[in-house]
Amino acid sequence: MKKNMGTADKAIRIVIAFIFGALYFTNTITGPLAITLLIISIIFVLTSIISFCPLYSIIGIKTCPINNEKGKN
Question: Is 30 a domain residue?
């Protein structure tokens, strides 16, 4: 698995996950919407930790900077 998420992308996902989690645990949202947003927040945190988003691979998006190979200018 090659990394396909940049630092800004990971930070945004973590912030969104925190917001969704706060809304869930303060009972601001309830029902199926609450469960759906909690699942999305868990996915956001996991993909941020591993710096890989499977959906990005399917779509062909890469937000991480290009790594230069050793020995090339």
Answer: yes
